[in-house]
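User: These chains co-purify. Model them together.
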Amino acid sequence: MSRAKPDMIKGTLDLLVLRVLASEPMHGWGISERIQGISEDALSVNQGSLYIALHRLTREGWIRSFWRDTENNRRARYYELTRAGRAQLAVETERWQRLSTAVARILETA
Amino acid sequence: MRRLSELFFRLRALLGIGKMERELDEEVAFHVEMETRKYLAQGFSPEAARAQALAAFGPVTRQKQTIRDGWGIGVVRDALHDARLALRQLRFSPGFTATVLVTLALGIGATTAIASIARQVLLRSAPVADPDRLVAVYTSCRRGDLRCTTSYPDYLSLQSGASGLTDLAATSTVPLNLGTEETAFLATGELVTGNYFSLLGVAPHLGRLIQQGDDRPGGANAVVVLSYDFWRTALGADSSVVGRTVQLNQVPFEVIGIGPRGYAGLQLARPRDLWLPMFSATALGSAVGAAGSPATYENRGSRWAGPLIGRLADGTELGAAQAELRTIGQNLAAEYPEEWAAADGSRQVTVDPAGRYILPVGREAELRDFLFLLLGTVAFALLLASANVANLLLARATARGRELGVQLAVGASRTRLVRKLVTESLVLGLLGSAAGLGVAALMLRLLSSYELPGGVAISGLGITLDRGLLGLAIGLAITTSLLFGLAPAWQATRQDLIASIKGGVNDDGRGVARVRRGLVTVQVALCLVLLAGSAVFARTLRNSLRADLGYQPDRAAMLRFNTSLLRYTPEQSTAMRAQLLERVRALPEISAAAIATLTPFQGGGFQGFFAAIGGYAPAPNEEIRFDAVIVTDGYFEALGIPIVAGRPIAASDGPDAPPVAVINRHAAELYWKGRSPVGGTISFGDQLTATVVGVTDNPTWQAIGEDPTPFVFLSLDQLRDYAARSFLTLAIRTPGDPASAVRSAAAAFRQVVPGLSPSVTATMETQIGETLMPQRLGSMLLTSFGALALVLAGVGIYGVVGYGVTQRAREIGIRIAIGASEMGVMRSVFLDMAGPVLVGLALGIGGSLALARTVASFTYQADPADPLALGLVALVLLLIGGLATLIPARRAARIDPVRVLSID
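Assistant: Joint model of the two components:
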């Protein structure tokens, strides 16, 4: 089912998670839905690896988690960006833009 | 920042592992539920929706494992597993484990105990405000010693002149007799100026401390502050004592407070029991020496205060204060050339840091050297223990070569194996350090009855098993075990697989053998140094006890009692003494007996008396000061002090006879210069003028090898008032055993004075022995470690030879098969071991000679480089080495060639 969709480029998942969390705290399922929704299902997020990424980012100190009730009164673990995470988001965004500009230039001129 | 968050994360993972697992499960469950709902909403059946959701998530168990690995607890879990495995392995070989643990525990325990003593002596800060800003100020003696006492007027000049000090206080130490309604104590008092406690910046434990207003010339308050420790040990921590009156040398003083906890003066050697205002000394009179005389406070030539304690002003460095005070000294020397004259020009001022306690003046170097000697000893012991542990670990690793080889062959990773071996030695090290802490605690308790040079009592250093000690012990254990655990681990996993499984000889096996023989060399060398050291100390102790003391201590004993407790009138006291002497002299086992204020080696309690001598004109400001001992007839016979001229003090020198004095030869030489002192006079103020009737030899009084000082012996019957309220000593001589004679004397004493027990009974040799504490401490430590070293070296040699024989079994078998004799085989085994042992002996002798100079200052007529002693020690070691080789050598000689050659 996901054959047509491109795989995530290594490291981009971190960037996307940080970007999504930059607007508001969210639980894991919400993040996964948001990424798929915005990218109009163009990007498939392996849901298991999303959680691996979330725990890794927590360990790095870029995001932190807390437990809270959802709108329908279900307890869920929410994630939010830390100050270090905000800085990291800027770094990663800049790196991604450099990379995509470079790739686009090569595609246009080569 | 990131490091920190990661550490925190891991820590939380480790502590709350269960909680994190639960939360992860809940998080995943929530996700799957939400995803299922999504598919349900799209019209899937419940089962299909759930299956879709799970498929989208991916392999749950694996994902969770990846997350858990990220938590970083896998390492910890593995380590715990390894540790459990290691413990089980160690239980399988209890002999090996016990040997290693005992060795480690002794090495680590001894090092920890001695290091903590050294730390307390050299690095401990006094419990006062900002101790590193405190200084001790001294003026030099005429003879040139830099750290001597200061006169009161000079103290005032220094205090007012030094802008680099916020303040300067004067102190003077005086032995006092403290009496309460119930009992009495000999106490070490310190006279302090009123600014002393505010300068220290300390608060009282109870009541208040001495203040400026307490200490006024001519009208000081008769108040006393007791030290916390004295209050606890002597007065049972009775807080009602504050406000009560106590008798100090029969003069009433009010107890106004208890000093701060842990503070007993800045001197390391003699803890102060109580503090009095400086000027209150005049109420105590001449019993406290010069400080007791009002005139002394005006006399620049009367030097008795010291050390002076100052505090550096903010922004002043020690060097600046030193320079300033030295200049003030030079100005004083210019202004008062007579009082400041010295043998080499003029006297000068010295300033030392004082906040880390003041080491006993004149004994600093000796004390430091002694500590380093002890540290060296235990470091040697630790090295030796490490060498032994390394040897054992190597032996074990080699013995397990086959097991490890098999594990490697079936695919265990080398790192895993190394980790296993390292864990094993770490576990050993930690167990060893735990046991080592126990040994350290035991050793500190054992050592607490000993003294360091300069009279520093180990019990007074306030040593506790604290976090620093714990860290030290664990650090030592881990370093040792890792150092010596890694090498065998590396060796063991490097070996040739096939060869080790076959159990044959291989190159690495020989490498291990070489290392182990090297370790034997080290062990033998260290052992020799320790044994040689212990021999030197043992001889010092023996020679000190046999030294010519100016009397014969071997058949003498003493019994001390506190007459002030009896509340006798002088008449009752005289009658009691006469009755006691009569009783004791009637005992068949006692040949002479006398009562006196002091006998040699009682330590302290001296009465320094200023004297004038008929016909001797002192130099300006020269002080003639005698140490006085007040005695009955029979004193010189009881102690065996020879009279070299005139006569001893006799029974006829009673209260109605003219006062008499006996002086020592040193005083005669100083003040009569060749003339006979017999018939001359000595005056002590206006209290007493005595005629010299006899001269004694120079009895050694406080330390073996001490310089003689002027001594005077006076008749007790002519100073009855004094005798009634003082500690007295009954000295006895016996032709038999002094220990049993002193017991009989004590029984007689109890009959004469019911209700009073002697405070001390001891033979003279015990008394002298107690002053040899440092030598005894050194001797005890070195002897026990020497003995331990000998055992360890023996075990080490035995192990190495035994291993060598096993390794060479095939070769030896072949030799026997082709006709080698039993003797020949044994000889080859012995020759194999001779090399390492002989090299070790040579290194050990070299080491002993190199260390001889350091040790020399603690020895008495015992040459640390004595070739005979070194030879003897080497012989003993050779013998032990031979014995340890003999057993495996005989085994080698009995090898059955048929059996060893058919093993494979």
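The CA atoms of residues 646 and 761 of chain B lie 32 Å apart.
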